[in-house]
Amino acid sequence: MYLNRPAEYALRAMAYLARAKPDQRVRTRDLAKATDVPPAFLAKIMRQLTASGLLDARKGHNGGFILSRPACEIRFIDVLRAVEFEPSSTHCLFGLGNCSAENPCPLHFEWAVLKERIEDWAESHSLADPV
User: Fold this and answer.
1) What pTM does this model have?
2) From the CB of residue 9, how many other CB atoms can be counted at a distance below 10 Å?
3) What is the pLDDT of residue 2?
4) Which residue among 39, 51, 53, 84 is the one 20 to 30 A from 105 at the CA level?
5) Residues forming a β-bridge with 57
6) Buried (b) or exposed (e) across 19-55, using 16+ Cβ within 10 A?
7) CA–CA separation, 91 vs 81, rounded Å?
8) Which residue positions in the chain have pLDDT lower than 70?
9) Cα 74 from Cα 91, distance rounded (Å)
């Protein structure tokens, strides 16, 4: 299983915010520096996370981002879906467009088990879980 860049960057940003001081808003440029994510790319991701209701954003003096609810209520799957990443996608490791249970590639069934385990993990763990 792989994470695409938006998913990886979203998880980095959200994990950082989950460990920030309570009520401490973090600006995009500071978050980008702390998480080693390109600022322009991070800004787009932060908009998606805000639109999904995972973040509260404020502009201006004392502005920035903060989690919209406690870290224990934000599951990893919520973050992944906010940036349109689904662990259980139909992506084929061999790049076959017609890979399915009826027409499997050589790794289809093993890949399906791994995707299910990752999705179960992402569903059952939150930003509050130790990493």
Assistant:
1) 0.85
2) 22
3) 67
4) 84
5) 65
6) ebeeeebbebeebbeebebeeeebeebbebbeebebb
7) 16
8) 1-2, 88-89, 130-131
9) 26
